[in-house]
Design brief:
Layout: H1 8-22, H2 24-28, H3 34-38, E1 50-54, E2 76-80, E3 83-90, H4 93-96, H5 100-124, E4 133-134, E5 136-137, E6 143-144, H6 148-160, E7 169-172, H7 174-184, H8 191-200, E8 211-214, E9 220-222, E10 239-243, E11 257-260, E12 264-266, E13 273-277, E14 280-282, E15 292-299, E16 323-325, E17 332-339, E18 345-349, E19 360-366, E20 369-378, E21 383-395, E22 402-408
Parallel strand pairs: 4-22, 7-8
Antiparallel strand pairs: 1-2, 3-21, 5-6, 7-17, 9-17, 10-15, 11-14, 11-16, 12-13, 14-15, 17-22, 18-21, 19-20, 20-21
Length: 409
């Protein structure tokens, strides 16, 4: 019996199924804003390529019976959907006269895997903005593989920073996953979890209060040859750029984590000091000789010892305060991380459909994933070409709700 012709609808539905199952990191991200792009707003007007996301308002506690009214200053950040990823395939109608299993294995699966991998790699670059780092080290401060204690400390850091519990996720490079499974062996006595780790060589759900997944797109971070570290130039500085003495060595790298002497982080709700030096991610490469560091989060100290809204640190650094990088110079490490879904948001938005000049045009959306399929005829080469496209955008909204757990290269 001849096989029935595979329809475009079957192709695109299979593509969505594969997309949803290919990358756990993308599935763990927040998606609450993508409907703002997909659905027309009031009077049928579309929002354009960027929407503004309101961050939670922040207030300080009053003590005593006397009311002290506070003004509300809302902070917003933009989410832009303007990135397009796709794969273009040339094949004949004969290729579709196959079983769905063969067609999926030969054509759809490799194409979707390429799209998903490209999107995940792009989103993963945002991990360089995570300002928190925990690493297991040897006696010379060289990063070594994390242990159960390392992962538990990372969770505790999120607690200190008032990150909501529940729904926390851990994303590990496959090498780190293998090492972590080995370090966890014998430490858990819940037989179902031990058996699952033995069978899959992976830690999965609800371990240390997190769901776990491995992802080959986890970043490898390289620290430069630092040389003599700069010091703070001038007291009472605030904001996202800190004046310093000249940066030495070969400069500093985007994603390096630094601390300032005497500057401690605060619990974002109570504004009380955590007792830990505040950590900051460099938001851009800093060349040798530069005299300012771009940082995240911004330095927002208490005012006269009194807490303020959106406070991040106990005080500004003093003039001449030492600046320290948490990792050694010339070091490669894997930027595994744990995060709350609201740390980053992803939007996959349905694309406009052409009405002329195509043989086929289909679009499907399911469970937050939208893929467009278009087939057109190449008269010069006498071929049909099918393109699969995804329109997306992402934003690391609250990088402070994530912690890097470094692992040696």
């Amino acid at each position: 019996m001849a096989n029935s012709l595979i329809t475009p609808t079957l192709v695109i539905r299979r593509a969505i199924e594969l997309f949803r199952n290919q990358n756990p990191f993308l599935q763990m991200m927040d998606r609450q804003w993508q409907d703002e792009f997909a659905n027309p707003s009031v009077a049928g007007q579309k929002p354009g390529s960027t929407i503004q996301i309101r961050l939670p308002n922040d207030y300080v506690i009053r003590t005593g019976p006397t009311a002290v009214p506070q003004s509300t200053t809302e902070v917003t950040t933009g989410l832009t959907v303007a990135k397009q990823a796709g794969v273009d395939i040339s094949f004949s109608m004969v290729d579709r006269t196959l079983t769905m299993q063969d067609y999926s294995r030969r054509i759809i699966e490799p194409a979707v895997n390429t799209i998903v991998g490209a999107i995940a790699s792009d989103v993963m670059t945002g991990a360089e903005a995570i300002p928190n780092l925990i690493h297991n080290v040897d006696g010379s401060n060289n990063t070594i593989s994390p242990t159960l204690t390392t992962w538990a400390q990372a969770g505790a850091m999120l607690d200190k920073l008032s990150t909501p519990r529940g729904q926390r996720n851990a994303i590990l490079d496959p090498i780190t996953m293998a090492r972590t499974v080995g370090s966890f062996s014998g430490l858990f006595n819940q037989q179902s979890k031990v058996g699952d780790q033995y069978e899959t060589a992976m830690i999965k759900k609800d371990v240390l209060g997190m769901d776990w997944a491995q992802d080959p797109t986890v970043l490898m971070h390289h620290t430069p040859a630092y040389g003599t570290m700069p010091t703070v130039a001038g007291a009472n500085q605030t904001g996202s750029s800190i004046a310093t003495s000249a940066v030495g060595g070969s400069g500093l790298a985007q994603g390096d984590i630094v601390t300032f002497a005497g500057v401690y982080s605060v619990n974002r709700v109570t504004k009380a000091s955590t007792g830990q030096l505040a950590q900051f991610a460099l938001t851009a490469n800093v060349p040798a000789g530069a005299t300012a560091l771009p940082i995240y989060p911004a330095l927002v100290p208490a005012s006269g010892g009194n807490p303020v809204a959106y406070e991040t640190v106990t005080a500004s650094p003093a003039a001449g305060a030492a600046i320290v990088c948490l990792t050694n110079a010339n070091e490669w490490y894997r930027k595994n991380f744990i995060f709350h879904p609201l740390a980053a948001t992803l939007a996959l938005v349905p694309m406009e459909m052409p009405t002329r000049g195509v043989m086929e045009a289909y679009r499907e959306s399911y469970q937050g994933v939208s893929i467009r399929l278009i087939t057109f005829y190449d008269g010069i080469n006498d071929q049909t070409i099918t393109r699969l496209d995804v329109l997306y955008g992402y934003k690391w909204v609250r990088p402070e709700w994530a912690v890097v757990v470094a692992d040696a290269a």
